Amino acid sequence: MKWQTIARAKARLAKEEGTLYKDWGGKLRVALAFPNDYYVAMSSLALQILYRRLNDFADVVCERLFWDKMAITQGEPLISLESQRPADAFDVLAFTISYEMDAFNLVAMLRQSGMPPLAEDRQQGEWPLFIAGGPVVSMNPEPIAPFFDAMVIGEGEEVLEDILALARANLPRPALLEALTHLPGVYVPLRHPADPTDPTFHPIERLWAREYGAYQPVTAVYTPDTEFGNMHLIEIARGCGRGCRFCLAGYIYRPPREQPLARILDWAQPAIKQGRRIGLVSAAVSDYSHINELAIILRRQGARISVSSMRTDPLSVPLVEAMAASGTKTLTVAPEAGSERLRRVINKPQPEATLFAAIELAEKLHFPHLKLYFIVGHPSETEADIQAIVDFTLEAKKRFHRQITINATPFVPKAQTPFQWAAMMPAKTLKKRQVFLQKALARHQVAVRADSPAWAEVQGVLARGDRRLARVLLAIDRPSVRGFHNALAEQGLDAGSYLAARDPAAPQPWQVVSPNVRLSFLQKEWRLAKATQVGHACPPGAKGCLVCGACDPAWAFREEISSGTEIISPSLPLTTEVIP
């Protein structure tokens, strides 16, 4: 092992606050792995929560593993951050996978570990237990399923203690895998048929936490080497019932749940005393039922505030004012589509008047920068809808007189959403529309940031793929668009079949997961989208309506929705984003 790798680890540790060091003697050794670099990984509140939660067990030592491009390039082994021990020294490797494109980093880490990447090749010998969880796994585990012994579908804290108990039992590998199949929400690919038409096939029900646990969904480790720079993150709510048809988080984290106001304020106090900025995290911060009160109290206490996302219906003026007073430089308004017609298709029927009210507030409060977020390539999108993005942006420019930037992100159909059956727009068409936006707005000094359509297609294949893609991923040495398509061809596959429209009545590979949202509900929303009609949405603060199937009667009709629901955050990017 080269000393440079150890030196980098120790340099990172020297900058951290809150790092947990535990003696290994007599303890279950768990490596919490994130298939992206340190900067991205430590921006994940989910990783932080799991790190604290696992180390809360007296007989467990949990350390962190990250994808490290430099170490991989230099042929260095995969080592933990805290003790710099190799990956194969642990009893459990627990991967948190938040993005489809991290599948490439995952394979690189598996190779770097020196252990067989495929679970079927680890059935003999003393190998760690490979487990995966996170949004990608809850959406569609199949493309990476062959790499793992077990995968947790949904909110893992519901089954964490049971998994640890089995890992401590020192069972032979076949017996361990068999025992894992009997745990709720746990998917064991080697013991489970992948074909939904198989008579023994059954979907794995998604876990979601109904009651609070004995942990805090707040930052555990502070570091300047992350997007948030020592910010104190607090998850104030989980889930979203707005029903945006393209949004994965809006379906796999149902039903909406909230933390009590008093508890959030308690969690904020130590950070306020330390002078840290408070980052409020949820799918839509402004949907929190006490958001105005929370913003006012935190501001009165001297807290500086950032948020993960907001909506403009209604717009929380106290929250935006608190952000401005905290020195926030950018306010993001996300219409997602340029025309009201297309906003109905995607089930974000926000009138332009409401959107422009938020922009006018940004001007009034002197935000230096306004970002407008759009998705290009929505189902039924036309060139007129792209022109509507230009028109909307120019109208915004009349109201906001400082820097404006727009994002033109390609639409990628996601499993477990009403758009899971939609065809993905060809990369050439997406690129043409992005270029049109760039040329049309450049003359007005509006910058257009656009993600690569070619890479978006790769993401689209992974989002709705099957188990055959694991072999494709293994065949790629260095990720590239051409390399991915070549590897597909070598396996007798092509991207077109994955990106094409799907039959809503046909079985799909991701049906191995039951998101608890009824298939009939998703099918109805898809029909409404094609008819340009707005669908169902759970209003903020809803106690449960039982329409989509995510809630159960015992939970839905309690007196208070926020009286005791446990929350573990997905990996949400913390920005100053306003999502209508």
Index terms:
single chain; 580 residues; alpha/beta; pyruvate-formate lyase- activating enzyme; six-stranded mixed sheet; five-stranded parallel sheet; 22 helices; disordered C terminus
Q: Please, could you describe this protein's structure?
A:
- The protein is an alpha/beta fold.
- It folds into two domains: 3-205, Response regulator (Rossmann fold, 3-Layer(aba) Sandwich), CATH 3.40.50; 232-464 and 502-578, pyruvate-formate lyase- activating enzyme (Alpha-Beta Horseshoe), CATH 3.80.30.20.
- Helix content is 35%, strand content 13%.
- It has 22 helices and 18 strands.
- It has helices at residues 3-15, 38-41, 45-55, 69-73, 102-113, 135-139, 160-168, 173-180, 249-252, 261-274, 291-300, 317-325, 340-345, 352-364, 383-399, 427-442, 453-463, 469-474, 481-490, 495-499, 519-530, 553-556, and strands spanning 28-34, 60-66, 92-96, 129-133, 150-152, 186-187, 204-205, 232-235, 237-238, 257-258, 278-281, 305-307, 330-336, 369-376, 403-410, 447-449, 513-514, 577-578.
- The strands form five sheets. A six-stranded mixed β-sheet has the order 2-1-3-4-5-6.
- Strand 11, helix 11 and strand 12 (305-307) form a beta-alpha-beta unit.
- Helix 15 (383-399) packs parallel to helix 16.
- It is globular, with a radius of gyration of 23 Å.
- Residues 559-580 have low confidence and may be disordered.
